[in-house]
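Write out the 3D structure for:
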Amino acid sequence: MPTHTMRAIRLHEHGGPEVLRYEEVPIPEPRPGEVLVRVHAAGLNPPDWYLRDGMANLPPETRPRFELPVIPGTDVSGVVEAVAADVEDFSVGDEVFGLLRFPSFEGSAYAEYVAARASDLALKPAGIDHVHAAGAPMAGLTAWQFLIELGHDHPSPFQAARHRPVPLDADTTVLVNGAAGGVGHLALQLAKWKGAHVIAVASGAHESFLRELGADRFIDYTKARPEELVHDVDLVLDAVGGPDSRRLLSTLKRGGSQFPVFFGEFDEEETAKLGVTVTGTQVRSNGAQLAELGSLLDAGTVRVAVDSTFPLADARAAHERAGQGHIQGKIVLTVGR
């Protein structure tokens, strides 16, 4: 490395996109169990703007602790630049991608270099570029841990019960709400990979995109309410979640399940009366699961859609794009020296 400093985006205060500062900071040094990654691309995710605005939308008891200034970002794709002495799985020059240190807010991915736990990383699929790889980790692992395999024993801050994915096959019907977004479009593809019949809910502008990804049925929520059109589904994966999520309970058959990615308020009496369950989890970094997802990305079985890209220095514009909504796939920052 020619210098001991790098460019990064930092927050010194909370607020809108204007608080994102492009600054020169020291290059981190990998600690035991870590590698130094030269970042080629960093993906944007909702926790990035939750951090930026002070996590006002999260209950106080679920807010991770952090100190300002902080470098945001968790999703990264790049090349290993240095390796701690105890790391055996990666070597200098390896192309890697990962969800870093989540659910903490210490990922520090909006930077030219990042020190990453080796256990958070997987080899980047050779068949995709860094931009698409950087769009995969958080959204892909969220879909994976909700639908395929939880992969950890950590309790959710939103519920006492352990989340259990529903087995998916040709006899399963899955409704994906918010199907065009980061989690939604990957969840749709994973459900199709397992053979399920998938109903995609999004705005009409995304219909052709979602049908290309394999949606068997499409509902434009701007023209019709899915709860009035759909009944007897086995699983609702609600990638939107929040206060309105409970309206989708009526689409389920008895014995069905609803998985809200962003937990809302549900009435236990209502769910018991309907004979359905509501469960969720909090995505966690997992390099082994990401390697499994990576094999699907490499084969083209699952693909990451990129809504837009912005240079690292233009992170503010990237966050402004995120604030506009109606995102198709992922927003990604490109990084170069």
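Residues 5-138+284-334 form a domain with the Quinone Oxidoreductase; Chain A, domain 1 fold (CATH 3.90.180.10).
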